[in-house]
Amino acid sequence: MIPAHVPADRVVDFDIFNPPGVEQDYFAAWKTLLDGPGLVWSTANGGHWIAARGDVVRELWGDAERLSSQCLAVTPGLGKVMQFIPLQQDGAEHKAFRTPVMKGLASRFVVALEPKVQAVARKLMESLRPRGSCDFVSDFAEILPLNIFLTLIDVPLEDRPRLRQLGVQLTRPDGSMTVEQLKQAADDYLWPFIEKRMAQPGDDLFSRILSEPVGGRPWTVDEARRMCRNLLFGGLDTVAAMIGMVALHLARHPEDQRLLRERPDLIPAAADELMRRYPTVAVSRNAVADVDADGVTIRKGDLVYLPSVLHNLDPASFEAPEEVRFDRGLAPIRHTTMGVGAHRCVGAGLARMEVIVFLREWLGGMPEFALAPDKAVTMKGGNVGACTALPLVWRA
Ligand code: HEM
Fold first, then answer.
1. Where, by residue number, does heme b bind (predicted)?
2. How does pLDDT run across 24-37, given as a tens digit for each residue?
């Protein structure tokens, strides 16, 4: 049923998990909404608002006071089960928990991690290069962030395969695990490491965060679990999706491959621009007060969906938004790929470094690559859109 306060001309039938044509092109599927009003009501998934214009996406994302993060709304059951810290917190409580997480991911630690990320990337590439082809998603994009995460929390190499299967379920859930089972499997995997780091801190990410007090007191076990879960779920499929999109762009644009091979000094700016051009994260909010936006009223209790793609690809946000122009990255780009305001990604610096290292290592170590002519690229929608298959070929 459509609530009485939703004007009829705002109603659309748009399923965020399966936008029309998403399998072929995530971005084109979402962009269909840019032709209509700035705030629409989708009848799918129980009914919710979608911010459908750049300025509206940005404005609502920045309104953490009236739009709460607590429930992770649109995905049924997800928020209740996951209870992420700090993602699902508001106000002063959020700030108290976010601060130690920010400290743990501070830029000096990110810089120190770079050689390890480089080593992980090189090792993966070594086995791929002689093959002459790969499915970039399952052979590289999904594995790199998983190995980086495990390096971050100092998990020994021999303990890694167990998380691989879980990693696949996180990035490409096939329905074989419920949200509860996924949460449980992640907790079971992470718990021995959390327990050890709480008792005897080392210099890994979990230790750094958990040894910072929360509002002047130590973390409880439950809070520690919820935070570590957030880091695991927040830093895998997002990075995998981004690296997949970057590789897709380069496969389609050999001229950009050539340019970045010849001018590796352009890679940081290119990474920023590619991250703007290929945003795949969308978030949910729950209105805790009435909010007027784009000429309509979001009522207290309504759900709102904020897709970064509809900000970054709105021609009112960026000139010719679909064109990748590396010189855009020479100045800070006001994109929403990593979010806006109070909840802006705490892993943004780490993610950027991963994309830069990927570009540098892949372009430096692999020959020119292209899409496999006989196989299809496929994509998926949802809170993190992504390529689900990206067949690449090169001369071995
Ligand atoms: C390209 C990769 C990434 C993208 C696109 C991305 C995107 C985002 C976005 C859009 C948000 C805001 C969520 C909201 O407003 O509700 C966010 C928050 C967050 N991200 Fe990332 N992220 C990435 C990588 C990472 C990494 C590598 C980590 C950590 C290892 C991480 C951990 C988190 C956490 C903990 C939050 C919650 C912050 C808070 O609520 O205060 N993310 N991310």
1. 61, 98, 285, 343, 345
2. 999 999 999 999 99
Q: How many CB atoms lie within 10 A of CB 163?
A: 21
Instruction: Summarize pLDDT for 51-89 with one digit per residue, the tens.
Output: 999 999 999 999 999 999 998 766 667 788 889 999 999
Please say if the pLDDT value at position 337 is more than 70. Answer: yes
Is 285 marked within a binding site? yes
Confirm whether residue 343 is marked as ligand binding: yes
Q: Is the CB of 343 under 6 A from ligand 1?
A: yes
Q: Is the CB of 98 under 6 A from ligand 1?
A: yes
C-alpha closest to that of 25 among 391, 392, 393, 385: 385
- Ranked by mean pLDDT, which of 161-170, 177-186, 206-215 comes out on top? 206-215
Q: For tokens 């800070």, what's the residue? A: 332
Per-residue tokens: 1: 């049923």
Sorted by sequence, the CB contacts under 8 Å of residue 253 that are 6+ apart come out as 324
Q: How far apart are CA 346 and CA 342, in angstroms?
A: 10
Q: What's the confidence (pLDDT) of residue 74?
A: 63
Query: In one letter, which amino acid is 64?
Result: A
Question: How is the chain split into domains, by residue range?
Answer: 8-394
Fold designation for 8-394: Cytochrome p450 (1.10.630)
Are the beta carbons of 317 and 279 closer than 8 angstroms? no
Q: How is residue 328 written in tokens?
A: 């855009």
Answer yes or no: is the C-beta of 311 below 6 A from any ligand 1 atom.
no
Please answer whether residues 214 and 100 qualify as being in contact, where contact means their C-beta atoms are separated by less than 8 angstroms: yes
